[in-house]
Amino acid sequence: MYQDLKNKVAVVTGGSKGIGNAIVKRFGQEQMSVVINYNGDQESAQKAAVDVKVSGGKAVVVKADVATEEGNAAILKAALDNFGDLDIWVNNAGMEIKKPTHEVSLADWNKVISVNQTGVFLGSKIAINYFKSHHKPGNIINMSSVHEKIPWPTFASYASAKGGVKLFTETIAMEYAKEGIRVNAIGPGAINTPINAKKFADKQQYDQTVSMVPMNRIGKPEEVAAGAAWLASSESSYVTGTTLFIDGGMTLYPAFMDGKG
Ligand code: NAD
Question: InterPro entries, per this entry (predicted)?
Answer without folding.
Answer: NAD(P)-bd_dom_sf (IPR036291), Sc_DH/Rdtase_CS (IPR020904), SDR_fam (IPR002347)
